[in-house]
Each structure stands twice: as C-alpha cells, then as structure tokens.
Fold this protein.
Amino acid sequence: MAAADVGESGIRSGDEALPTPTAGVRCCWTATSHRNHVYFGRARILASPGIYISIPFCAQKCTYCNFRSDVYARALRTDYVRCLARELCSGDTRRGDTLYFGGGSPSLLEPEEFEALSAVLPHRRWAEATIEVAPGEAAPERISSWVETGINRVSLGVQSFDPAVARAAGRKHDPETVQTEIRCLRERGILNISVDLIAGLARQTALTWRRSLDWIERLGVGHVSVYMLETDDASRLGRELQAGGSRYGARSVPCESEIVDFYLEAVEQLRSLGLERYEVSNFARPGRRSAHNLKYWRMEPYLGFGSDAHSFSGRRRWSNVATAPEYVRRMASGSSPRDRVEEPGPKRMLEDRVLTGLRTSDGIRLGNDEWRELRPRARRLADRGWLIAERPSIRLTDRGILFADEAIAELLG
Ligand code: SF4
C-alpha cells in the first residue's frame, strides 16, 4: 500500500516501517539464556519462534464466542489484509518454524487475499502450518490457496456435530458438510486434521454429545480439542447465563456436573481411539500434537501479527491493539499497532510457566530455587493425589487435571 493511500474502508494509510520485534530470546529452567538460544542445562538449542497471524473476521457471531472477532464490512477486510501484509513484511518471520492462521475465521479469506499474505511469508516448508477453518468454508479453490502457502494442518471449529446444537450456537453446518470437507482436505494432501468440540452448548444433551463423539470416531482425525463452555460476559450466551433471558438458549445449557461428565466421557472415548490427552483440552494420536500450541504452553517464543495478536520473545511480551478497525487505523496512520509491552520479572515468569505448563501432561521442570519455593505446596497437592512431584519436574495427575485451576492457584499461593 502506498503512503497516504485511502483504503476502501476510508482509513488513510502510511508506509512507515514498523518496529521489528526482538525475537528468539528465552528464559529457561536454569535461567541462562542468550539471544536466539535456549539452554537446558549445558545443552544449547536454537529457539525458533512460532508465527501467529490473526484474521478477526467471521461470517456470523457465534452465541458463545468471547473472542475479539466480528462480522465486519468487506471493505475493512480488504484494508486489514493490506495492513497485515505490511506488518508481516516488517516483522522477523524468517526464523519461524510453525505458522498459525487463527481468528476469527481465516477460512473466510478469498484465495487472492490469502495469496497476498502468503506472498510476504517465507517460502519454504513449515514444520507445522495450521489454518483454523469454519465448517462450510473449505471450498476447493480456498484449499488450493492454503496448500500453495504450505498449510499442512487444519483445525476445524465444529463445536457440535448435532445440527440443532450447532444452529442454536449460531452455526449452519451439518455433519455431512464436515465429512465432505475433511475428504477434500485429505485428497489435497492435508492429512493433519484437528476438530474442536465444546461441552456445554445450549441444547446439548447426553445423546447429542454421544453423537459428536461417534462422528469423531467415524472421521478418524488425529487431533481433537475439547473445551468446556466459558460463561463470562464477553459472549452473548455468557451474558444471558449471568443476567437471564432466553434468546440464546441459556435455559437449555447443561449444568456444570453434566458438562464435567461430557468432558470425562470424551477423555475415555478419545483414549480408546488412541488420542491421548497432552493438555487439559487437547488430545492427539502419536505425532499429531500441535507443535505451534506447544510453544505457548512451554513458553517458547512466538510472534503475533494482526489485531489482538500477542507475542513473546522469551523475555518480553507485547500485544497489538484488540480490534480490526483500530488496527487498520493505527497502521494507516503509520503508527505501531502495538498496544502493550511488558517485561515480567522472575516471579511473574514462574507464575506464567506454572499457569500454562501445568496444563500439559508433561508438566514443568523447575530450577533449584523454584523447586525450593514450590515444594511445600506441591507436597500438599501430591498428598491429595492431584500432583506428581519428581524433582526437578511437577505435573498434574488425571484427577488433578479435573481441578487444574484450583491446583494451579494453590501451588502459586
Ligand atoms: S467462535 Fe469462531 S467462528 Fe464463531 S464468532 Fe467466534 S471466532 Fe468467529
């Protein structure tokens, strides 16, 4: 985009280069890190960042959604893609080894929009390159543009295979659409496929949940995410649950104990299908764990681009402005899209590591001082059967995972 262009959304643009984020610095268990390297004991490992690209556009706003995505005018999307391409050009994406298009619904982008972003990304084989796809949006020509970009993994936001539950959530798909799209993806060589389910949607019953799990078995996917409904006031359904009303189906939302039962049933069913839980909400066959998401949970570096995208260098964290209109405004005026930058101290870093790492089946490794600090509380949790503490590692037991939030809060005192 040329300097001072006026985009289709009427927002002026500039061509001033954005500051390049510092990438590749990481603190680690032994607290010895240098630029671009991670040290585990005496071993030195090159730390490649994951690249996250935010596409905050959706065809409809789902009732349960608490993300900063929305249904925006097409003109804004056109400007957003141009601005995003500029931010990607000025960022250090070359050292990235994983790529993730998240949203929103990145699958909403037309092939030419996707190609505009692809053109400014490194042209090579990614260790893992994922796109989040809303069922019904995986048209053959779109799949072709994904394959051209090197996408080798698709995360399908199915949420429920029951059409009535999906409709109540604001989605339009049926299970046959999902089945057809998965077949198309496989025919085009994308074999690494993940399906998202949500336990606790309006109109969900034991029977509809069972049907969703049966579809997982039928489709034979290698990765499944099972989320429990969040009832905060950032979604329309969440607000209705808190304030009352019937427009979004709050009265037909299963109770908490039913939701826990759905989750436990999923754990059992997925285990029987060979999908092991490797994070509280994530299940995978061997070799199918999400390499990109593991970087978040292991606090490895990642660089985010676009609105509401977060980045972590290993030492510093920063995030971009939250909404697409604000992002385009900032970029168009030649300003940095960054909103917040912080450099957490050692205490905060340990807290973050516990918060994210303890949700994984591998748990976390502690340094000597960290071990000394956490040992008394870890011992109490171990006595309760929630935690396994084997110096220098701690991890939650199957039972502890059910109380993960409580266990983590107690461990951090
Ligand atoms: S749940 Fe996904 S598809 Fe639905 S509104 Fe939110 S980001 Fe968009």
The chain has a mean pLDDT of 89. The pocket of iron/sulfur cluster is lined by residues 58, 61-62, 65, 67, 69, 103-105, 134, 157 (CB under 6 Å). The longest helix spans residues 74-90.
